[in-house]
Amino acid sequence: MAYMIIEKWASDLAQIVNADNIKCNESLKQYTMTKLGGNADVFVMPETEEEAANIVKYAYNNDVPLLMLGNGSNMIVRDGGVRGIVINFSKLDRIEIDGEIVIAQSGALIIDVSKQVAAQSLTGFEFACGIPGSIGGAMAMNAGAYGGEIKDVIVECTVLTPEGKRIVLSKDELELGYRKSIIAKKGYYVLSAKFRLAKGDQEAIDAKIADLTFQRESKQPLEYPSAGSVFKRPPGYFAGKLIQDSDLQGKGVGGAEVSTKHAGFIINKNNATATDYIKTIRMVQHVVKEKYNVDLELEVKIVGED
Ligand SMILES: Cc1cc2nc3c(=O)[nH]c(=O)nc-3n(C[C@H](O)[C@H](O)[C@H](O)COP(=O)(O)OP(=O)(O)OC[C@H]3O[C@@H](n4cnc5c(N)ncnc54)[C@H](O)[C@@H]3O)c2cc1C
Question: What tens digit of pLDDT does each residue of 247-263 get?
Answer without folding.
Answer: 999 999 999 999 999 99
